[in-house]
């Protein structure tokens, strides 16, 4: 094989493969150390009703790496997912979500908090017990907690997945399907799941209102959701045109840079207070 491939190709190929493996391993090690330190931080991105009222926020993890700078979750969540780290990271994100719920409650600004839950984490043997333990320890209201899962979760072990979701729903937690439309979930599955909402993936939102195909997909998701009695969040809303289109198409909630970027809890609280101050001054 080596002969056929030629010396140069092999010489080029092998080090790069090795570097990828080493890179992944060192990122994994560094993440293991970063967990539990201030390098990892939760940002939150608010979600609004069509009339601009804040109703919830999604928790998005940020890693300020001492050498590499701020890393996007897209760069390290997949690495975490290939090891047990996702479970440690996931436990921390749920705990952070619960703490955020309590802080919002203390500030008398109750709203839902959405936490991303990866498939591997969800299928962990102790997952339900772990969630129950965090809820008991923090005293956070489960009724305000939303778990965002992807369609990938539904591909195998569907009966087990549904049973597990039911247990969590009994605890008061709601479920949302993230990046909806990008996976392979069959419509028949959707009906069987105890869901609260769908989040339209931003790749579709981005196409509205000018692109016919994208717009048609968004409209189909909205009518499907309406028929299944589910709420819909549009993610990645960036322009007033998209927002207007989503309003007229009957979307429930908006999330995106047009409204607010992900930010630390403190900044969000300041924004809320500033907005209320402006409203008070205007009335
Ligand atoms: P996601 O759950 O679909 O989160 C939405 C992503 O879109 C976030 O990227 C957010 O910053 C970004 N976004 C929000 N508004 C806009 C917009 O208007 N335009 C554009 N172009 N992007 C927007 P982020 O924070 O980089 O997170 C990427 C993904 O990483 C998330 O996608 C989620 O799947 C995953 N992730 C983030 N935090 C966690 C976590 O704590 N646990 C797990 N398991 N996954 C996480
Ligand atoms: Mg999400
Ligand atoms: Mg999403
Ligand atoms: Mg997405």
Automatic annotation (TrEMBL):
Localization, UniProt = Cell membrane
Q: Which domain of life is it from?
A: Bacteria
Q: Where does the EAL domain start and stop, copy by copy?
A: 24-276
Protein name as catalogued:
PAS domain S-box-containing protein/diguanylate cyclase (GGDEF) domain-containing protein
According to its UniProt entry, this protein's organism is Noviherbaspirillum humi
> Which part of the full protein is shown?
777 to 1059 of 1059
